[in-house]
């Protein structure tokens, strides 16, 4: 490969958008990422002179870490579209700038990575900055040590305008004023999950859901109760008509002042347009065209009025044999109840079984963000 061609390819890698980050942030809050593409690029393809030439044409931070090392090791390129191209990704979203996820969030991601070990688990975070450089993955993995052993976990910046481009939500997003929206964090998350599932397909989950068993359905909604749908977990194939219709309804019937109007109520409205939904009699699921409407037992065996049961000691720990995952209703948790290792509460047992890495870190009183200094507010 000629030096000019090498330079062109490296510049193309740096300039290309839509990149995923693997366990970001260095010890000094300088953000690094593993350079993306669909294959490994060998060190021999780019000599040191080429790297220095590129640095001279880019901002100082762009290839800082490359020029700090005399020998550049292999680095792997991964595109978001490649990771999610099969429509089988598991997606989580953070629409605030928070960069230190709670233990429950880490448990949600860890449990999903374990249950769906052959699928990509992507956590979209608004607080992730744009790329400033490149770092080998072993360094980046030091940031979230409880997740560092999972090769199927990825982090990606949440750029709303990019996500909404090509969907009915983009005009709404350009017009809405977040400062006037009482539930902006939640409303924006409602929109992002729809657009992402529309574009890539797969499964969306709220960050307070602990996965236990694989969900066998491809196209599904989760019933919170009879005839009422949740939007906290759902799965649809790429460009599914339900996703598109929900985004249209989102804009046509937008009312950000009403809690849930763009979330569970929206899903319920659109589902009712497709078919008449009967009441659940037992633990059966319901079919609505090519969408499965899953029984409340699948994700909500403990309904929201009883959410505190998760933080209580049970005489007999339930096995939740009819459930795929458990929604812990964190929005209701105004008291900020947390897992206490060794407390014998239900959530204590759930962490121990389904997210043992974060559980053991808490049990041993370890710093779960040893190298992350970015403010979480």
TrEMBL record:
Location of the protein in the cell: Golgi apparatus membrane
Q: Which Gene3D superfamilies match?
A: 3.90.550.20
Q: How does it sit in the membrane?
A: Single-pass type II membrane protein
Gene Ontology biological process: protein O-linked glycosylation
Signal peptide from the UniProt entry? none
Keywords carried by this UniProt record: Glycosyltransferase, Golgi apparatus, Membrane, Transferase
Please give an example of a GO cellular component term from this record: Golgi membrane
Q: Where is it predominantly found?
A: Golgi
Identify the InterPro entries for this entry: A1-4-GlycosylTfrase_dom, Glycosyltransf_32, GlycoTrfase_DXD_sugar-bd_CS, Nucleotide-diphossugar_trans
Family per similarity comment: Belongs to the glycosyltransferase 32 family.
Protein name in UniProt = Alpha 1,4-glycosyltransferase domain-containing protein
According to its UniProt entry, this protein's organism is: Hymenochirus boettgeri (Congo dwarf clawed frog)
